[in-house]
Design brief:
Distance between the termini: 51 Å
Low-confidence stretches: none
Shape: elongated
Structural class: alpha+beta
Number of helices: 2
CATH topology of the largest domain: Outer Surface Protein A, domain 3
CATH architecture of the largest domain: Alpha-Beta Complex
Radius of gyration: 21 Å
Strand content: 35-45%
CATH class of the largest domain: Alpha Beta
Strand order of the largest sheet: 11-12-7-13
Number of domains: 2
Order of helices and strands: EEEEEEHEEEEEEHE
Number of strands: 13
Largest sheet: 4 strands, antiparallel
Length: about 180
């Protein structure tokens, strides 16, 4: 049995969980999330906890057991607390700015890169070298952060570019004289 999959998910106060066939909906103070789950996974609510079980012991069902439990736990956490990722911009002349709801990145390209966040995602720029992406869906927050980072990924010689907060860049030695 999956170690992650067999752990129950507690339902906090103010969170409403609806299970209709293969569709699970979680509503909370920050919003609502819906996800379709596989037919091989059974989800039920018992004593204020969400219980995830698999219907058979096939390889696919075993693979989906822990994954489904984690996805549902992320939905519950998202509608109560939300998720956020912080990106850091480093490099001379590299900066980020917010114009309305549009993120404008000046990254040394021939034109500034502009990004409009999808619905449900909030982008903050507390300083020109710091970008904060917030939302209730962990998957979308991670994808938007990855798209922003992809505009100018950090390069290994000087470390310039956009990186996640806490990410370490393995620096390479430059030419033969530098050590």
């Amino acid at each position: 049995m999956s170690r992650i999959g067999k752990a129950p998910i507690p339902i906090p106060n103010g969170v409403e969980v609806n299970i209709e066939g293969a569709v699970i909906t979680v509503k909370g103070p920050k919003g609502s999330l819906t996800r379709r789950i596989s037919q091989e996974i059974d989800v039920s609510i018992e004593d204020g906890n969400i219980i995830v079980n698999r219907s058979n012991d096939g390889k696919r069902a075993k693979s989906l057991h822990g994954l489904t439990r984690t996805l549902i736990a992320n939905m519950v956490k998202g509608v109560t607390e939300g998720f956020q990722k912080t990106l850091l911009v480093s490099g001379t002349g590299y900066r980020a700015a917010l114009q309305g709801n549009k993120l404008v990145l000046s990254m040394g390209l021939s034109h500034p890169a502009e990004m409009v966040p999808p619905e449900g995602i909030e982008i903050e720029v507390p300083s020109p070298t710091r970008i904060v992406v917030k939302g209730i869906d962990k998957e979308v927050v991670g994808q938007v952060s990855a798209d922003i980072r992809a505009v100018r990924p950090p390069e290994p010689y000087k470390g310039k570019g956009i990186r996640y907060d806490g990410e370490r860049i393995r620096m390479k030695a430059g030419k033969a004289g530098k050590v």
